[in-house]
Structures are given as C-alpha cells and as structure tokens.
C-alpha cells in the first residue's frame, strides 16, 4: 500500500444532491451520512487551480455532526442544503474540520451550539478548550459516540489532519477524510499539497484498511473493495 491504491479496486458513487448513504429507517442502522457541499478541484482555462472542500452531515441518535464547513462564500448554500435535509444550524451539536485550510473551515460561526474541533483544537463552549485523548497521535481516537463515531489522527496533508470514522451495521465503515484523498483517482495528486508525504502515505493506507467507503476532500464519495483485517 505504498501509494494507498495499489491492489485496491474502488468505484464511484454519484453524489446528486441530496446524497445520503444509510438505511437509517431500517432496523440496525444508527447513522446517516449526507453530502451538504460537493467538493471539487480543477485547473481552469487560465491555468489557475480552483477548488472547494466537501461538507458532510452525519445524523444519528442525539447527534447532528458536520465535517468541514466549506469556504466563507458557501454560507447560504450550506444553510439551504441543511434546511432541505430538515435541520437548523442550531441543532448541530458537533463540527469537525479535518484541517485548517479556508475551504474547510469557512462557516464555523453558523453553529453556535456545537462543540467545534479544528484539527487538534477543541472548543467545547465559548472560551473553554477541551483536551484530546492521551496518545491521540499514536492511535487513540476521540470518541463522539463510543465506537460508532470517532475522530482519528491522519497527518500528512497537514501535520494535524484528522478524519471522522462512522461505523454502520448495514454498510460497514464510512470515513470522511478531508484532503487525505483529493478525489477517487488521486494516486499521486496529493503529493503536491502534502506537508509530510511519508506520514501522508501511512494515513492513506490506514484509512483504506479501515474504510468501506471514503468521502474525499474534493471529489465524489467512493467505495473501497479490499479484504478487511
């Protein structure tokens, strides 16, 4: 798994809005994962790179969690899509930003009641900062909902990147990983934007070992087909 994709097959899944990934209404499933903003990244006709981050809503028992909040210009689109899915920003109780780049942290002020986690910083309420678990960098997860929803350390794109792991009895494990993967076909695009390529490779391999589905930072959700554990 030196590149993260060797000997692994995966297939695209359309993310037509509103895309949801769950059988929440069926017995056994606890969480639903919905795409609020479709991330993208491309070079335009003037050779400028244009990009915006994916924003994801995770809903389950007593939890409304948003992973990455887009750029500041996404405010109204984010609010409109959240409303379309039947939720108000005040209902969101947890926001996780996978890293601190502006296209992933642009609208934190929209969620006044949420615990806010930006990479390794956790703002619990107003000016109260909470601590990460001891040995977070060595694999101890930050638990939002026991073993069902966890935040794990996945450094590489930045030194303090994190990913959100959502476990479902119906679909296995979904991981929202920010720019650890730019998009599905990102075999080497990530290298140009990586602060630590060696750790980045390790984190990509880790996510592919854990995940059944991956939500990347700038592309469509994709399925990972590989032997597990």
Automatic annotation (TrEMBL):
This is Metallo-beta-lactamase domain-containing protein 1. Homodimer. Pfam families: Lactamase_B (PF00753). GO terms for cellular component: cytosol. It catalyses: a ribonucleotidyl-ribonucleotide-RNA + H2O = a 3'-end ribonucleotide-RNA + a 5'-end 5'-phospho-ribonucleoside-RNA + H(+). Residues 52-218 form the Metallo-beta-lactamase domain. It comes from Pocillopora meandrina. InterPro entries: MBLAC1, Metallo-B-lactamas, RibonucZ/Hydroxyglut_hydro. Endoribonuclease that catalyzes the hydrolysis of histone-coding pre-mRNA 3'-end. Involved in histone pre-mRNA processing during the S-phase of the cell cycle, which is required for entering/progressing through S-phase. Cleaves histone pre-mRNA at a major and a minor cleavage site after the 5'-ACCCA-3' and the 5'-ACCCACA-3' sequence, respectively, and located downstream of the stem-loop. May require the presence of the HDE element located at the histone pre-RNA 3'-end to avoid non-specific cleavage. It is found in: Cytoplasm, Cytosol.
